[in-house]
Specification:
The protein is mainly alpha-helical. It contains 10 helices and no strands. It has 2 domains: 105 residues, Rna Polymerase Sigma Factor, Chain: A, CATH 1.10.1740; 59 residues, Orthogonal Bundle (Arc Repressor Mutant, subunit A).
Length: 193
Amino acid sequence: MRDPTSQFAQLMERIEAGSQEAAWEMLEVYGPHVQRYIRRSLNPLMRSKFDSVDFAQVVWASFFREPGRIRRLDTPEQLMGYLASMARHKVVGEVRHRMYSDKRDLNREVFIEDSPESEDRALTARDPTPSAVAIARERWTQMLDEQPETVRQIVELRFHGASFVEIAAQLQLNERTVRRAIERLVDMGESDI
């Protein structure tokens, strides 16, 4: 069994020489530690904006971009300290940028559920969309084309806001007849859906 210190030294030499296999090996061994450190240090408000993987990728990109600093790391502990320091700087920098700048201040964000106005207003419109209105009118028109003239008059008056009693009086029909005509059309419309 080889000495862990010599294994680490060989890994660092291979990385400095540009070995991709060595870089992948380092990511497999130390990547979870870096990610765990980032998760612990990431502000809860920032977690909705960034994943710890985002920061880990930036840390590793910086690490592999500066091969001169790799030579100074003699032990796994020094490497972890260096990576943790890089991660801390990346996270702190982004926290400052996102939480303390006027333009992107996350402290000013208010979740919809926590907003006092959210209870007073619905998040979705109650009115139908223009396309839904057009589709409904087209369906009614198709259904009415097949109906007798009296039924068409009943529907037209109802669309204009007349009550069942007013329609019955105007067309000289029984109120029940007017109601049944509308109910039959509604049943027909529901069976088409």
